Amino acid sequence: MKTMKVSVVTPDGSVYESDVEMVIAKAQSGELGILPGHIAMVAPLQISAVRLKKGGKDEDLIAVSGGLLEVRPEQVTILAQAAELSTEIDIDRAIRAKERAEQRLHAQRQDEVDFRRAEMALQRAINRLSVTGRG
Amino acid sequence: MASLRDIKSKITSTKKTSQITKAMEMVSAAKWNRGVMNAKAFVPYMEKIQEVTAAIAMGSKGIAHPMLQSRQVKKTGYLVITSDRGLAGAYNSNVLRRVFQTIQERHKSNDEFAIIAIGRVGRDFFSKRGMNVVQEIIGVSDQPSFNDIKEIASNTVGMFADGTFDELYMYYTHYSSAITQDVTEKKLLPFSDISTTKKLTSYEFEPSAEEILEVLLPQYAESLIYGALLDSKASEHAARMTAMKNATDNAKELINSYSLIYNRARQAAITQEITEIVGGAAALE
Q1: Helices B209-284 and B4-59, packing angle to 10 deg
Q2: CATH superfamily assigned to domain A91-131
């Protein structure tokens, strides 16, 4: 099957670089599946897992904290402020972050900004855990 | 003339100082190496995001986004990046002098500007002078990750969005080589010159260009801040390395000149002793 180059880059460096057959990502407008030869496109992503199919059952999972998906016919780039391969996620840290965010949400009503921030942190933690299969 | 013992103790203490500066030089050299590597790791991300932003902002005319429009300036934001520690030569004072002069030229009162300080030296400098520091972060690690400054970066961009200030300048030290680092002023917001050397691709937008800009522009602005921080960190370590090397060299020179004085004093003492003995013997005859 035809493949395309996929790279996931964050401000701290490149996280993933490989040839894959299909990219499945959750954009803000819904789930997207991208095959080689796709028209050039840009879409913002949700805090979610990106699935990269490499033929057969072989697939890589990457947790991204939002960001952008940039598609070109022969190359897909994901620009995220943070992204981790499922095998590289620090589970303990994610669990701690989840608990912390939950506590903050349960605490007394704070102002809206803090609440939203805690909500985002919770989403990111849950996303990381679900990518590792511990959600 | 100072006594032999005084000179000797001066030599010992200078030697100890030079050992410390030598060690600091080597530590900075290691950090500098990693700082340069971090700055390099950031380049692909920056290039890509710049390319996409340019493609959207230039490719599709008639998109309005607050971050792309200049508005009447009532208040100006200054983001100043300095280090937490000194002993880096003129690294911090160069940045601070530039910002201070600029502010004095452009503004008459404290209400016309707001300062966002990254680094202890800058924070102390401005708060001591009673200038309006609205945000600060200290203790950023030597190898900062994006996470370390995400909060201050997004708050800063948020302050532009909610109208706390109407334009934002960034002052940092650009690293050009181990011996030259230049203070750089960059107008961050509103974006005025987004350009790229690469060929522009025309994209389909999912769902629409406006909504993508909504996500992309803040992310772009935050990345620029992070990039400036990496640049400054590489410069800081290079500056500290050079400063410490100079200090070590100076200490060596000082030790040399003290040794010379010490030997002369020793000679003088010996000569005097001999003269006294000869004089004493002559008196007995």
Answers
A1: 170
A2: ATP synthase delta/epsilon subunit, C-terminal domain (1.20.5.440)
pLDDT of residue A85: 85
CB A1 within 8 A of CB A43: no
Residues of B in contact with A79 (CB under 8 A): 45, 48-49, 52, 219
φ, ψ (nearest 5 deg) of residue B169: -110, 150
What residue type is B84 in one-letter code? D
B47-75 burial string, b = 16+ CB within 10 Å, else e?
Answer: ebbbbbbbbbbeebeeeebebeeeeeeeb
pLDDT class of A92 with cuts at 50, 70, 90: confident
Per-residue tokens: B104: 């004095």
Instruction: Kindly state the helix (H) or strand (E) to which residue B187 belongs, with its residue range.
Output: strand B181-189
pLDDT for the residue B198:
63
Domain locations in chain A? 4-86, 91-131
Q: Which of A40, A67, A79 sits opposite B203 (nearest CB)?
A: A40
Which residue has 């004493």 as its token pair? B280
Report residue B22 CA to chain centroid gap.
21
B142: tokens are: 């030597």
**Which tens digits make up the pLDDT trace of B78-125?**
999 999 988 888 899 999 999 999 999 998 888 889 999 999 999 999
DSSP for residue A45: B
Across the interface, do A12 and B145 touch by the CB < 8 Å criterion? yes
The CATH number of the structural domain formed by A4-86 is 2.60.15.10
Option in A9, A39, A82 nearest B44 (CB): A9
> Does the domain made of B25-242 have the CATH classification 3.60.15.10?
no
User: Is B203's CB within 8 Å of A28's CB?
Assistant: no
| Average of per-residue pLDDT values in chain A | 85
Q: State which of A78-92, B100-114, B243-257 shows the largest mean pLDDT.
A: B243-257
Which two structure tokens, joined as six digits, stand for B93? 């004072």
Q: Is the ipTM of this complex over 0.90?
A: no
E strands along B49-180, which residues?
Answer: 76-81, 113-118, 133-137, 167-175
**Residue A82 in contact with residue B146, Cβ under 8 Å?**
yes
Residue B251 has pLDDT above 90, yes or no: yes
Q: How far apart are CA B83 and CA B233, in angstroms?
A: 8
Instruction: Please report, to the nearest 10 degrees, the dihedral formed by the alpha carbons of residues B238, B240, B243, B249 taken in order.
Output: -90
